[in-house]
Automatic annotation (TrEMBL):
The gene is Pol30. It comes from the Eukaryota. GO terms for biological process: leading strand elongation; mismatch repair; regulation of DNA replication; translesion synthesis. InterPro entries: DNA_clamp_sf, Pr_cel_nuc_antig, Pr_cel_nuc_antig_CS, Pr_cel_nuc_antig_N. Pfam families: PCNA_N (PF00705). This is Pol30 protein. One of its GO terms (cellular component) is PCNA complex. The keyword Cytoplasm does not apply. The keyword Chaperone does not apply. One of its GO terms (molecular function) is DNA polymerase processivity factor activity. Residues 1-70 form the Proliferating cell nuclear antigen PCNA N-terminal domain. Keywords: DNA-binding.
């Protein structure tokens, strides 16, 4: 199945997107990774131009815990 997702700036406290970029992401894998976040985690989502990799980083506000997924 093909799904189009648009992440608007209004849904984020801090948002930067230099240009629209299409990414192929396995939705089952993405769902599992998103469920790893805690309610108060800061989530950073990055994608670089040269590779088809989506990077998600979760940082806990109350501890030194950092989780990174590619």
């Amino acid at each position: 199945a093909l799904v189009a997702v648009k992440l608007d700036a209004a849904g984020f406290k801090k948002y930067r997107c230099d240009r629209p970029i299409p990414l192929g992401v396995n939705l089952n894998s993405l769902t599992k990774v998103l469920k790893c976040a805690k309610d108060d985690d800061i989530c950073t989502i990055k994608a670089s131009d040269d590779v088809d990799v989506l990077n998600l980083t979760y940082e806990a506000k109350s501890s030194d815990r950092i989780a990174e997924y590619d």
